[in-house]
């Protein structure tokens, strides 16, 4: 079984046939499956889609049960949580639907944790961290693009001189570098390479 385009979040089962891991979809299993849009819905009240998975949470006054249903709770209603609550050893605690969110100072609303600035997010070489509400993802650094080569996805240098995305002067030559490019004025011209006279 060989899959020419690879199976990003799955395994190759036959000629160009991918079997996706749970939570992913697409021909090459490179897309996140939005479980919140499935029928029947996986959560009784509210659903938050996250990369490769999902989280359930309840309306105020309800408590999240292990099976994703929401149980009416007088204690929850009194606490007035943004995303529902749970009872731990007789104590009511507000919930946040993702590990990338934390309870705010009021103990009721959830605020985003910026994993990129706290250093919690680790992105591999040539990738930069992009923060999202409740999570983060890794994106190729500027000057690189995601390509499938030799059996895996990697961030490969964009040759701006070939793709014609450089801003070199008409009288300058473009020289590709890792993640960027240089402009050099041609013989008989002087300047920065962006301006040649």
Automatic annotation (TrEMBL):
UniProt GO BP: cell adhesion; cell differentiation
Main location: secreted
Family: Belongs to the nephronectin family.
Subcellular location, record wording: Secreted, Extracellular space, Extracellular matrix
Start and end residues of each EGF-like domain: 32-71, 112-150, 157-195
Record Gene3D superfamilies: Laminin (2.10.25.10)
Protein origin, superkingdom: Eukaryota
Keywords in alphabetical order: Calcium, Cell adhesion, Developmental protein, Differentiation, Disulfide bond, EGF-like domain, Extracellular matrix, Repeat, Secreted, Signal
Gene name for this UniProt entry: Egfl6_0
Transmembrane segments annotated in the record for this chain: none
Pfam family, one: EGF_CA
GO MF entries: calcium ion binding
Protein name: EGFL6 protein
Species per Swiss-Prot/TrEMBL record: Lanius ludovicianus (Loggerhead shrike)
């Amino acid at each position: 079984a060989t899959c020419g385009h690879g199976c990003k979040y799955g395994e190759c089962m036959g000629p160009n046939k991918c079997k996706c891991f749970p939570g992913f979809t697409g021909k090459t299993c490179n897309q996140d499956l939005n479980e919140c849009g499935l029928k029947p819905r996986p959560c009784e009240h509210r659903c938050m889609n996250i990369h490769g998975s999902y989280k359930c949470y309840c309306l105020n006054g309800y408590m999240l049960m292990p099976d994703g249903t929401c149980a009416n709770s007088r204690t929850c209603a009194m606490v007035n949580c943004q995303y529902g609550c749970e009872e731990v050893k007789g104590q009511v605690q507000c919930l946040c639907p993702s590990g990338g969110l934390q309870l705010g100072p009021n103990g009721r609303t959830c605020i985003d944790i910026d994993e990129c600035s706290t250093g919690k997010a680790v992105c591999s070489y040539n990738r930069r961290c992009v923060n999202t509400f409740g999570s983060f993802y890794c994106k190729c650094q500027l000057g690189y693009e995601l390509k499938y080569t030799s059996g895996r996805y990697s961030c490969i240098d964009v040759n701006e001189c070939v793709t014609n995305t450089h801003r070199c002067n008409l009288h300058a030559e473009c020289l590709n570098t890792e993640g960027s490019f240089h402009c050099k004025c041609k013989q008989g011209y002087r300047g920065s390479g962006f301006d040649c006279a």
